[in-house]
UniProtKB/TrEMBL annotation:
Sequence ranges assigned to domain GST N-terminal in this UniProt record: 8-87
Name of the protein described by the UniProt record: GST N-terminal domain-containing protein
Domain GST C-terminal, residue spans: 92-246
Coiled coil: none
Gene3D superfamilies: 3.40.30.110
Length: 339
């Protein structure tokens, strides 16, 4: 296994507008973990990732050495496991339950999709963006379509604010799990709300404001202040230009040993089978191909080759929300395997 090395071997591939990337940045900052970042274009193509042989098109991606992690759910889980001293996640099962449900609510559930429906139309005033994001979060990103859906999204988001205000924050606590400092549960809950509050023009003050939801707004302010505190004393992510970041990955060791393929997995795939893997919600045509090295209830990993340096990389994704198909075999015949 690789030692942790400079900047912990971590490179975050992202662009600053991404609220998903912010989840990971906040996590790293609150942990005081050093990392590097390589800024990616807001729209396709993303040549750096293509050089690394990564087909997945969502942002962020995090690499540690030659292990590449897709999706913030897995990225944060891996950071918790790899840097366990001072981890931010809960240990008590009841608290883990809340933390996990918050992740499902915001990442997989209704919150993010409704939040994106409140993006001001000026932000999509570019045919390139509209074309690039077609179908993302179930819409086509034209100004007309956004405007048509805005009222419904606002109703949903208001309901989400109300939910936080009247339940977990109702007793006036500072942090979701009653901790001294923000924990992972706060990150899981706060990110779409923080994003909207900071996104001018997204929340009409007559519907969602500090006046309507004083506890939720105070929580967001506290969270921002806590981040300010840690970032004033800790180094920020070190910015790496593309060629350096690519070289750093392909000249690294793997950060973790190869995993196992679970023989009880419903897909009944064998280790070493050539597969493709892709997210099921959107961007599914961007498929990573490679040799299956890990298939567990929480993770699927393929070994693929970088274009630069023809080096083997392992690309890891969460097991849920991603589909794995044997190359040359259809998804429907696989999903009926073992049934
Ligand atoms: N489930 C993914 C979702 C990531 C996601 O949707 N990210 C947005 C950016 S905030 C994205 O990829 N947008 C399209 C793109 O950048 O190509 C995660 O948790 O990382």
């Amino acid at each position: 296994m690789a030692d942790k090395g400079a900047l912990n071997g971590i490179i975050l591939w992202h662009y600053p507008f991404s609220p998903f990337a912010r989840r990971v940045i906040w996590y790293l900052q609150l942990r005081g973990l050093e990392y590097a970042e390589c800024i990616q274009p807001f729209t396709m193509p993303r040549p750096d990732l293509a050089e690394l042989g990564i087909a997945y098109r969502r942002i962020p991606i995090l690499s540690i050495g030659r292990d590449v992690y897709l999706d913030t759910r897995l990225i944060i889980q891996k950071l918790e496991e790899r840097f366990p001293d001072g981890k931010l996640g809960a240990s008590d099962p009841k608290e883990v339950f809340i933390q996990k449900l918050l992740e499902k609510w915001t990442v997989e559930g209704p919150v993010f999709a409704a939040a994106t429906g409140l993006v001001p139309t000026e932000a999509v005033n570019d045919p390139k963006v509209t074309e690039d994001r077609k179908g993302f979060c179930g819409r086509d990103w034209t100004a007309e379509e956004l405007d048509q859906g805005r009222a419904d999204c606002l109703v949903s988001i208001k309901d989400c604010f109300q939910f936080l205000e009247s339940t977990i924050l109702a007793d006036g606590r500072n942090w979701v799990l009653g901790t001294e400092q923000p924990s992972l549960a706060d990150i899981e809950a706060i990110w779409p709300f923080d994003w909207l509050v900071g996104l001018e023009g997204s929340l009409p003050l007559s519907v969602v404001s500090e006046k309507h939801f004083p506890k939720a707004y105070a929580w967001i302010q506290r969270f921002r202040a806590a981040l300010q505190d840690v970032t004033s004393s800790a180094p920020k992510g070190m910015s790496l230009e593309s060629s350096k970041a690519i070289r750093a990955v392909i000249h690294s060791n793997f950060a973790e040993p190869e995993g196992e393929v679970d023989t009880d997995d419903p897909l009944a795939l064998q280790k070493g089978t050539e597969v493709e893997m892709y997210p099921t919600d959107w961007g599914s045509e961007h498929r990573d191909r490679g040799r299956l090295v890990t298939l567990t209830p929480s993770e699927v990993t393929v070994a693929s080759r970088s274009r630069a340096g023809d080096t083997e990389l392992r690309i890891h994704a969460p097991r849920t929300g991603f589909r794995v198909t044997e190359i040359g075999r259809s998804a429907s015949s696989e999903s009926s395997a073992k049934v």
